[in-house]
Amino acid sequence: MTTSRFRTISTLSLVVVDAVMTVLAFIVAYALRANIPFPAEPVSLAPLQSYTGLIILQCVCVMATMFFYRTYHIVRSRVDQFYAIFGAISIGSLLAVSLSTIFFKNTALEVDYPRATLVYAWVLGIALVSGGRWAQGRIRTQYQMRGQGRERLLVVGTGDVAQVVLQKIQWSPYLGYDVVGVINGDDSPRDVLGVPVLGRADDLPQLIERHLIDEVIIALPSASHEELLKLISLCQRGKVSIKVFPDLFEIMAAGVTVDDLGGLPLLTVRDVALRGYNLILKRAMDIAASAAALVLASPIMMLVSMLVKLESPGPVFFVQERVGLDGIPFPMIKFRSMRQNAEDSAQWTVKDDPRRTRLGAFIRRYSLDELPQLINVVAGQMSMVGPRAEQPKYVEEFQRRIPRYMERHREKAGLTGWAQVNGLRGDTSIEERTKYDLWYIENWSIWLDIKIMLRTVIKVWMDPAAG
User: Fold this and answer.
1) Are strands 329-335 and 317-323 parallel, antiparallel or unpaired?
2) Given the DSSP bridges, would you call strands 382-385 and 241-244 parallel, antiparallel or unpaired?
3) Phi, psi (rounded to 5 degrees) for 385
4) DSSP readout, 21-67?
5) Residues 327-368: pLDDT tens digits?
6) Are strands 191-192 and 195-199 parallel, antiparallel or unpaired?
7) How much is the pLDDT for 262?
């Protein structure tokens, strides 16, 4: 089956799933309202067939809203997809009620729509459409894992950004990509993260044709406009989709606003989102989330404490000085995952670190060693979400060679962060992590924090090697 045909069938099946689940949600909501006298006995509830016009209208409105939310155009993460479904069904349901009042009034289709049924249909619609899309996605992924309908991808670049793109694709099979190779200059390595380097930029037209490439991602954020235009023109000789990874300025410019200075127009490309009442809101969420997490995780923390003590000599906790808000050091708490005095080697923590204990390898794999940092959050030294805290010696080094590095210390360090859920944790590029941290600080919202926390849980427990 060709990629384009698979994509068409996948999209059509998604439309059918959404329609079926929306109709099913209304039918189940009607049954619940008819049989459960909550919040009161149903009054003037018509037979189900009388609601046929309203069901069709609600289905059309929800589907149209789904379309405008681009849920059939863009492959999203699980959290982003849930947000889109929540918004689309909420707006679609309200739109259906409004239109039915306008067009069904004084017609054979006019029918009483109990408020409880509306609420049931809304909640069930979100749940059933989400479940249906999850099932459809699992089936689609299974077909793609067998090699059907996968987009053949070529990545231009071999640097840190290209590696982040490759890691994201390798950790996210639901994206449906088959990475054929990467492109760079003569001095590039033979492969990048196991993906072969196929040639130089000038070879793009021939490589696109030879390898039947469907999409090209240009992961060169430092490339000039002239270089980008040249690469795009080379790609356009073949019938491929072209995507460009933006540089830091372009990421910030996505939120440009227009202000004025005494009548002179100014473009605001950087503003601090976390100030004023937002600080109070974020702190309240930190206290609530960390306190709840401590209560829920306390049995696990007690078990890990005993196992750490039994496995190797030394303290249960590993307390290390890290740099937090405004560059002020604080003691960060973790479960000890390495041999006693392992930090004396002054070595950067890397994957499969030989200093780890056997238990340490397990708790680090599932990020259980990070749980005591919830105490730091309750104490106000850290936040649930924010830039990751580094040791003072590394902060001194990074601020000398990385522009704007110290700006990431305008906010509290986080238990998790935007960089981490995008694959930048551990032994990865500090420059790229700094870009993601700055974007988070300048684009903070309560929903962004919730999204990051949900993605962290999903990544750690469903894909611990990637988390």
Assistant:
1) antiparallel
2) unpaired
3) -130, 135
4) HHHHHHHHHHHHHHH---SS---S---GGGGHHHHHHHHHHHHHHHH
5) 899 999 999 888 766 655 555 565 556 677 888 888 888 889
6) antiparallel
7) 45
Q: Output the CA angle 405-410-413, nearest 5 degrees.
A: 85
Alpha-helical (H) ranges within 69-114 are: 78-103
- Cis link prior to 39 (omega < 30° from 0)? yes
Q: What is the DSSP letter of 147?
A: T
Distances (CA, A) of 183 to 189, 282, 425, 456: 10, 43, 25, 31
pLDDT averaged per 10 residues in sequence order, the chain, 467 residues? 76 92 93 77 76 90 88 73 88 90 82 81 94 89 78 85 82 79 71 85 86 86 80 72 69 50 50 67 92 92 91 88 90 87 57 74 87 94 92 88 82 90 75 85 86 86 56
Cα 40 from chain centroid (whole Å): 41
Q: Residues 6 or more apart from 363 whose CB is under 8 A from it? A: 304, 335, 337, 369
235-285 confidence digits (pLDDT tens): 765 567 888 876 654 554 445 555 544 445 555 544 555 666 778 889 999
Helix (H, G, I), strand (E, B) or coil at 66: helix
pTM more than 0.70: no
Q: What's the CA gap between 91 and 65, in Å, rounded?
A: 7
Dihedral (CA of 277, 283, 286, 289) sign: negative
Structure tokens belonging to residue 99: 């239109």
Nearest to 50 by CA among 112, 97, 102: 112
Give the number of other CB atoms < 10 A from CB of residue 12.
11
Report the distance separating Cα 305 and Cα 321, nearest Å: 21
Pairing of strands 195-199, 177-183: parallel
Those residues whose C-beta lies under 8 Å from the C-beta of residue 80, and which sit 6 or more positions away, are 451
58: number of CA atoms within 13 Å, CB side? 24
CB distance 3 to 214 below 8 Å = yes
Return the pLDDT at 76. 66
Token digits of residue 289: 């989330």
Do 465 and 365 meet the contact criterion of CB atoms below 8 Å apart?
yes
pLDDT for 188 equals: 60
User: CA 37, CA 47: separation in Å to the nearest integer?
Assistant: 17
Q: What is the dihedral of CA 103, 108, 112, 117, to 10 degrees?
A: -80
End-to-end CA separation in angstroms for the chain: 34
Are the C-beta atoms of 95 and 61 separated by less than 8 Å?
yes
Kindly list the distances between the CA atom of residue 154 and the CA atoms of 144, 162, 197, 311, in Å, as whole numbers in the listed order.
17, 11, 10, 47
C-alpha closest to that of 272 among 255, 297, 293: 255
Given this model, what pLDDT does residue 56 score?
92
